[in-house]
Amino acid sequence: MAESMKGMHRTCRVAEVTEEMIGKEITLMGWVQKSRNKGGIIFVDLRDRSGIMQLIFDSAKTDQETYDKAAKLRSEFVIAVKGVLQKRAGEANTKLTTGNLEVQVSYLRILSESEVPPFQIEENSKTKDEIRLQYRYLDLRRPDLQRNMKLRSEVAYYTREFFHNEGFMEIETPMLGKSTPEGARDYLVPSRVHPGSFYALPQSPQLFKQLLMCSGYDRYIQLARCFRDEDLRADRQPEFTQIDMELSFVDVDDVIDVNERFLKYLFKKTLNVDVKTPIPRMTWIEAMNRFGSDKPDVRFGMELVDVSDVVKDFDFVVFKNALAKRDGSVRGINVKGQGDMGRKQIDKLVEMAKGMGAGGLAYIQLKTDGTVKSSFAKFMTEDQEKALIEKMGGEKGDLLLFAADRNKIVWNVLGQLRLHFRDELHLVRKDDFNFLWIVEFPLLEWSDEENRYMAMHHPFTMPMEEDWDKIDTDPGSVRAKAYDITLNGNEIGGGSVRIHQDDIQEKMFQVLGFTKERAWSQFKFLLTAFKYGVPPHAGLAYGLDRLVMLMAQADTIRDVIAFPKVKDASDLMTEAPSRVEQKQLDELGLEVPPEEK
RNA sequence: GGCCCAGUGGCUCAGAUGGUUAGAGCGCCGCCCUGUCACGGCGGAGGUCAUCGGUUCGAUCCCGAUCUGGGUCGCCA
Prior knowledge:
With about 600 residues, the chain is an alpha+beta fold. The protein has helices spanning about 65-70, 130-135, 135-140, 145-165, 205-215, 250-270, 285-290, 310, 315-325, 345-355, 380-390, 405-425, 500-510, 515-530, 545-550, 580-590; strands spanning about 25-35, 40-50, 50-60, 80-85, 100-110, 170, 190, 200, 220-225, 240-250, 280-285, 305, 330-335, 360-365, 370-375, 400-405, 435-440, 445, 450-455, 480-485, 490-495, 535-545.
């Protein structure tokens, strides 16, 4: 039976008691974590978001009615107790911050009873995601999720504080906007007033923040909700939050400077971690050549080695074909100490490589017994083999893996294998925070599918002045004033300097295959705004969820989002998305497929 | 959309060449216990072995499809 809390007032959270309160009567409220009835004395662990406090019901000291009531307490009952805070009479519990304290209860109210929960409310739950998410309100009671939510709240707080002190203004941009077919799929919202017309939920506030620069707001920040109707991943949700910013009268170094100070401040305040500044910078091409990734994990070696020159005369058709391709190369990695790997495991690696788009994976095993086994031994002379091993720095016991194809594929295959071995061989520590800027991204990326160049970042990204003269002759070689901030091999943010000169913008649209008409119909408001005095500006956006995930050392982004969605973008708790009543559809002038039975 | 993994009491898992009563730990219920805190002792309840179909004398186990969840590729300017 649920009782009222009338007349009772919570003194503080259960683990927020102080030494001065010892001997005083206090009132606590929370959930029953656990009850241990010894017969004659009952111990109850009372839990709230601050922690746990042990309650004592002693048959010799409490009245019979209270004692009998205490005997009825079960897990997750919500109770209010009045009693004297005291030093523990028995052994202290070193695992609790309140382990040397307890409350001798004189008065108990059961504010709410609870059914037996479907899983135990405890740290490091092994319960499968499906059930946790169905009962998310119970899952969120678990201490590890409460810690993550607290960290997330603090990240948001210190972010606002830092940027406020730096003169940034937080300005909200619309959730109901205009659909732009470039980029990710939009979530669409039908308009009742304009049947057949749709708003789109924002993928990012990109264009609005540029307009705010046109309006003179100088330094803008927003913790912005964004939406992308694409498939989910362990680190990707359909709705997510960005720390979104834009600055006027700045260049690359200015954006990097304020953000390095931000990261230093944030990590110190929230995790007490010292971020060393300046954060190192690496160009995109160096990252790709050395690590096969534009978000390299540089905490360990196993760097890519370009062996194209060494193998160019090998009588191996796979290598020859690769080198004949545009942007083709042969590169390898040296997996130290794995030369004795079994055939089965190697086959698995080859399969992995094929899954990443490679035709296969060539290898040389330098076994510890001194023998050498290679998948392409018959296509090279002994001297050639020796030269290749030497180029790779191969020693007894090493495994040399080679990919041959267009650079894009070679980088991807070896870059991913490198990460595979990082995890397999435990080459890094999780609590190590290694930041790295990646700069000088290519401006454009060729799309085979569209048969044209696409913007690597977005169409408003400023090219590097020194490359601009190559925009007609060799567009693929033009670098952009774009930058990403990475942490331990994850992209946590990215941005660019934006184009503010209309002649460059016009040329960009032309290169991207936009007709003047299409560019104008799509971005009329922006292009018009740019006619009325636009300052040079640049910005950056962090993925807040992914950042907090890494800070919390969580394995999935779901663990830092209160109410996340599952793989098919549905919510197991609310069962959204759901069908709606015909009346709603009629008002919108919409027809939808009939429900499947 | 493709590929891979998983689905057995409330939770986490084990299991059987295909054969009587499918096990364990935790949780739950009852009784006992005045210093426990992974409390302890005794007793007990609880299972369409994800669903549908096939093979078989017989299927939780083999086969196929489906569903659910996870990972990943495509996708994510």
